Amino acid sequence: MTSNFKATELFGGAVIVNLPDGYADVSDIREVPDHQEIYLDASGFSSIIVEIAERVPQPAADVDALKFHFEDIVDEQDSGRIWHTDVACLPLFPPNTPCYTLLATTTPPPATNGNIQRPLTPTFTAIILTLIRLVPQSTDIVVTINIPHIPGQQEPSDGAVNFQEGKFGSLVDGGVKIRDEVWRTLQVKDWGLFGDGE
What we know:
- The protein has 2 helices and 10 strands; from the N terminus they run βββββαββββαβ.
- It is an alpha+beta fold.
- The mean pLDDT is about 85.
């Protein structure tokens, strides 16, 4: 993963954020839904998805909405596990905007006679998800960093990656740096994107 970032306009310039300069806009090669922006690591397998979603209605707590959005992106056949949730800080949003984050993994089903895995099937995928709850706009912004762990693609210095012991490896550490830069720089320039003013 790269440590060089560049200011990137999303949703026609209504949102701006610093993204790694080695990531390419997927919409240049295929159609992407209007409510999503997807960037793919040109030299690896990781991706960043920024999604504008309808606000999850009145969960018992905001953390339930965080888990809802995670479960929404997990493939039905995969097993998912949330390792950590926390409050996030995005300084360019209005004060008291509810922001949360989680670190999770998804694991594909084991290979069977009826389920043959392709060569680049990940052992697991780490997911770093950030949820920004825009209450007046009835909108949730979901930023997802997907980090597939493909056999043979990890750094030799990583050793055994063990989430239970807090050993995340260089790929996830790189994803956390991207997340931190997103938190620092993500900004709405045109609140009309959500149909209402700020």
